[in-house]
């Protein structure tokens, strides 16, 4: 299994690709597969959010390009900036990751949020594409949940890392 522990700072070209949706690009500990099918373990500094185009360096020296996977999205537009700002406020109040464009907002597809947004009077359409939301006021992620799955995955990755040492 390929072990990846750091972001790449060199200008060396990537020879592998890692395609991930935003949900998985927020995880600093992750067992996954490269586009080639090779299994890989991410063991990055906590708080790192991977963006499309980022490059990682594996322990064997290979450079891996991060690709933002196509995802099912909602695209929000409005008749004026006040309506769009109002929609952004309500999404932010719910801690929803949002990609802010010059005249639109994008968020991961959610039927309940779609209904709420339509109720606010904005236009909502479905689309597919990469999702690159704002990092947040403090640059880190903010998630709720038990974390049991993540804890089990971290324990497994630590076991893999110790076995390689």
Explain briefly what this protein structure is.
This protein is of the alpha+beta class. The chain is built from 4 helices and 10 strands. It has helices at residues 22-25, 81-93, 111-119, 148-164; strands spanning 2-7, 16-20, 29-33, 39-43, 55-58, 63-68, 70-77, 99-100, 105-108, 123-130.
Throw out a few tags for this protein:
single chain; 165 residues; 2 domains; six-stranded mixed sheet; four-stranded antiparallel sheet; 10 strands; elongated
The major β-sheet equals: 6 strands, mixed
pLDDT average, as an integer? 89
Helix/strand-derived category reads alpha+beta
Instruction: Write down the CATH topology of the largest domain.
Output: HSP40/DNAj peptide-binding domain
- Total individual domains: 2
Bulk shape: elongated
Rg (CA only): 18 Å
Break the fold down into its secondary structure elements and pairings.
Layout: E1 2-7, E2 16-20, H1 22-25, E3 29-33, E4 39-43, E5 55-58, E6 63-68, E7 70-77, H2 81-93, E8 99-100, E9 105-108, H3 111-119, E10 123-130, H4 148-164
Parallel strand pairs: 1-4, 2-6
Antiparallel strand pairs: 1-5, 3-4, 5-6, 7-9, 7-10, 8-9
Question: Can you walk through the features of this model?
Answer:
The protein has 165 residues and is an alpha+beta fold. The chain folds into two domains: 2-68, HSP40/DNAj peptide-binding domain (Sandwich); 70-130, Alpha-Beta Plaits (2-Layer Sandwich), CATH 3.30.70.790. 26% of the residues lie in helices and 32% in strands. The chain is built from four helices and ten strands. The strands form two sheets. A six-stranded mixed β-sheet has the order 2-6-5-1-4-3. It has a four-stranded antiparallel β-sheet with strand order 8-9-7-10. β3 (29-33) and β4 (39-43) form a beta hairpin. It is elongated and about 55 Å long.
């Amino acid at each position: 299994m390929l072990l990846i522990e750091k972001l790449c700072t060199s200008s060396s070209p990537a020879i592998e690709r890692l395609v991930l949706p935003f949900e998985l690009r927020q995880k600093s500990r992750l067992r996954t597969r490269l586009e080639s099918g090779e299994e890989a373990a991410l063991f990055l500094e906590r708080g790192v959010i991977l963006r499309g185009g980022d490059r990682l360096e594996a322990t064997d020296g290979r450079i891996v390009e991060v690709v933002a996977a196509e995802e099912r999205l909602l695209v929000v537009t409005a008749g004026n900036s006040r309506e769009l700002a109002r929609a952004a406020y309500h999404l932010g109040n719910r801690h929803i990751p949002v990609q802010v464009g010059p005249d639109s907002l994008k968020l991961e597809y959610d039927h309940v949020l779609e209904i709420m947004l339509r109720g606010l009077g904005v236009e909502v359409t479905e689309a597919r594409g990469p999702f690159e939301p704002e990092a947040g006021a403090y640059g880190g992620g903010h998630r709720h949940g038990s974390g049991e799955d993540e804890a089990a995955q971290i324990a497994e990755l630590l076991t893999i890392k110790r076995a390689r040492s």
